[in-house]
Backbone:
């Protein structure tokens, strides 16, 4: 029997991220009856119930009934939630925080000694099972815990493990990067509207262009520069457009955007968790 089908998974917090991860997990071998989610209000719980997931207002109930617990509340609420559940965390648990900027050291400090803790950085496309997820294990999370998490998250998208120092970079590249891509898609569509295309059609074409380009980039394994040069006929339309982008400094702007978002994630991690806001 698949070990994931026996696994009990809990979510503390029922927002966008918890929902995206829960959907991915259910697309694998985890059974809905083995999943439970908690939140103080009922406003986000209905969509979990529609997936067959049990819901509660008690965070402690989620911990007591789970092996793997995702802490998916806003960063400033993490200390409050961990203090609340701490006495129920045992050596059978793996606590996985998705909170931006909350370090492994902070998580370990707030939980009983030797707790297995993981810091996971997902991104919004987990909802469409096309996320990019990077996780780092704490001192007492074993390689087997990492392997189990990888298997659990397999259907959420691309999952990789790395050192904690990469988590903030991943936040800038991928957590925030999603918004950079949306901005680019919006600008593509607006360019077409300026040239006379109806807005709805321009938006559909822009989103398909982003999707198609992304799929080809991932599936071909080619470097983006190679794919770009394959589209560039000498003296053709694309090189004229690329020249306009380079004149606008798009490459430097995007690099600076990833740098700024990474630095902001690092800054949030240095502040006491109670001051964090994302
Ligand atoms: N959104 C992203 O793209 C993204 C990407 C990477 C990481 N993250 C991280 O994911 C975490 C969650 O973000 P989100 O976008 O999913 O937030 P969200 O949509 O605002 O959801 C937060 C959830 O936390 C619940 N909550 C509040 N106080 C709680 C408590 N004391 N106990 C249990 N649950 C409580 C809320 O309950 P109600 O339903 O009652 O309001 C809500 O369901 C954040 O730490 C963020 O840094 C987000």
Residues:
């Amino acid at each position: 029997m698949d070990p994931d089908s026996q696994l009990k998974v809990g979510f503390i917090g029922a927002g966008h991220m918890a929902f995206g991860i829960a959907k991915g997990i259910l697309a694998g071998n985890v059974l809905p009856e083995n999943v439970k989610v908690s939140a103080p209000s009922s406003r986000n719980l209905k969509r979990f119930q529609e997936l067959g997931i049990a819901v509660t207002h008690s965070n402690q109930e989620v911990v007591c009934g789970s092996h793997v617990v995702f802490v998916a509340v806003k960063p400033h609420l993490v200390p409050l939630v961990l203090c609340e559940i701490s006495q129920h965390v045992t050596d059978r648990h793996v606590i996985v925080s998705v909170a931006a900027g909350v370090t492994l050291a902070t998580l370990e400090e707030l939980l009983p000694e030797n707790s297995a803790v993981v810091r996971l950085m997902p991104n919004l496309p987990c909802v469409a099972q096309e996320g990019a997820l990077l996780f780092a294990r704490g001192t007492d999370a074993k390689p087997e815990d990492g392997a189990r998490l990888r298997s659990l998250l397999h259907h959420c998208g691309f999952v990789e493990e790395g050192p904690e120092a990469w988590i903030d970079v991943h936040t800038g590249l991928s957590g925030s990067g999603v918004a950079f891509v949306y901005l680019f898609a919006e600008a593509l569509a607006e360019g077409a509207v300026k040239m006379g295309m109806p807005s709805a059609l321009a938006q559909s074409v822009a989103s398909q262009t982003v999707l198609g380009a992304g799929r080809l980039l991932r599936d071909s394994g080619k470097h983006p520069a190679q794919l770009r040069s394959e589209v560039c006929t000498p003296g053709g339309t694309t090189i004229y457009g690329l020249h306009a982008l380079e004149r606008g400094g798009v490459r430097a702007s995007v690099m600076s955007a990833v740098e700024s978002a990474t630095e902001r994630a690092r800054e949030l991690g240095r502040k006491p968790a109670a001051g964090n806001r994302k």
